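Ligand: flavin mononucleotide. Inputs:
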Amino acid sequence: MADRILIFYGSYRSDRQGIRLADYLVRAFSARGATPELIDARAVGLPMLDRMYKEYPKGEAPATLEELAGKIRAADAFVFVTGEYNWGQQPGLKNLTDHFLEEWFWRPAAIASYSAGRLAGAHASVAWHGTLTEMGMVVISSTLTVGGIGHALDATGAPSGDAGAALAKTFPRFADDLAWWTEAAREQRARVAPPY
Ligand SMILES: Cc1cc2nc3c(=O)[nH]c(=O)nc-3n(C[C@H](O)[C@H](O)[C@H](O)COP(=O)(O)O)c2cc1C
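Predicted complex:
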């Protein structure tokens, strides 16, 4: 069975660069035989959090939330493509993520961080690790870190320069790690119902 992987990206900026990394990951996971789908928070367009999905009476959540909840529940794994704003998480992606809780449980998640500088969004990556853990995902230890995001991928999302070469070299191990935990979690969910 092909792994159903949701790839989340959350910059709302007009001149956003991280979308290239998100597009690259969609293509790279596809090439491995997985079934990735990009969830672009800006395109989803949720408002600032008022009610979480679960706070709506059953069947009364807005259609966008309902549709996204279904996709999250059906996914085998998640990838968070995260930039860094002032050492923190991008608010658009955090806002989307906070709309859900139980929908995330019992699946692995991986973090791909990036930034304009050489630290490649490392601070945001660390922040996401705790957030995703709190939301019931099992965060794999492999990470992707892309520095100099403006030059690491060209406009088509193809790796370029040293940072792009490093990304292309690191991706297979990152994907192998996620695939192993994805299969493990799927088998275990089939074998034993999650405890809550
Ligand atoms: C508000 C803001 C804060 C930023 N803070 C950081 C930072 O703390 N560390 C860093 O390496 N880059 C920082 N940058 C540069 C971003 O890494 C770079 O602009 C990147 O392209 C942002 O992702 P996006 O283009 O997908 O929105 C910041 C950029 C913005 C707009």
